[in-house]
Design a protein that fits this description.
Strands 1, 2, 3, 4 and 5 form a five-stranded antiparallel β-sheet that branches. With about 90 residues, the chain is an all-beta fold. It has one domain. It has no helices and five strands. The chain is globular and about 35 Å long. Helix content is about 0%, strand content about 60%.
């Protein structure tokens, strides 16, 4: 991240309906791993659809992002989807 902000939402769109779960990782200054998950029990998820969002991240931890943090994404599972875009909403 080139600037500091707060993660406040996520939006996911896929090319076709299917099921997909993505974990979000964050680490200061180096490549994050599963140990750096911040998504809690609200991982970005598509369930039999191609559009989903969450604007109330109540179980996410450490949503404050500092300049220099690295955000990573890991596809935990995927069925029937070949292409998807996950966007993270930020407030400055």
């Amino acid at each position: 991240m080139p600037f500091s902000a707060t993660i406040n939402s996520w939006y996911m769109v896929a090319g076709s309906a299917g099921t997909m779960v993505v974990d979000v990782w964050k680490k200061a200054g180096s490549v994050p791993t599963v140990a750096d998950t911040i998504a809690g029990s609200e991982k970005p998820t598509l369930t039999g659809t191609n559009v989903a969002s969450d604007t109330n991240l109540t179980t996410w931890t450490d949503v404050a992002v500092t300049a220099g943090d690295i955000i990573g994404f890991n596809v935990d599972s995927c069925v029937g989807i070949n292409m998807a875009t996950l966007s993270i909403g930020l407030s400055l």
